[in-house]
Design goal:
Blueprint: H1 11-23, H2 27-34, H3 38-45, H4 53-63, H5 67-88, H6 95-99
Helix pairs in contact: 2-3, 4-5
GO molecular function: DNA binding
Keywords: DNA-binding
Domain HTH cro/C1-type: 23-70
């Protein structure tokens, strides 16, 4: 199993630092371009909401990137979150322990 020592970049961080700031695009303009509400964009930027496959495709079209790029950024962060949750779920035992009873 691979080990990730730090939290991966979120889609929101990537959007903000690599696309919005350099291109001087506001969250409001991004929402307008993607036909998404300003609150939804803010949640994505602030790491409170993950992006959907459809949103990944829209971001790819808007910024002339590949949808896999956005999907991979999201998936990398999702995998990290899953590992964090698994580390906290010590009360859940493997199925083999349950079947051995």
């Amino acid at each position: 199993m691979d080990t990730i020592l730090r939290e991966p970049t979120t889609v929101g961080e990537m959007l903000s630092e690599e696309f919005l700031k350099p291109l001087n695009i506001t969250q409001a303009k991004l929402g307008e371009a993607l036909n998404l509400s300003r609150p939804r964009i803010a949640e994505i930027i602030n790491g409170k909401r993950r992006i959907s496959i459809e949103e990944a495709v829209m971001l790819a079209a808007l910024f002339e990137t590949d949808s896999d790029f956005w999907i991979n950024v999201q998936t990398s962060h999702d995998r990290w979150e899953a590992r964090q949750l698994m580390a906290q779920k010590t009360s859940v035992k493997p199925i083999t322990a349950l079947l051995a009873r």
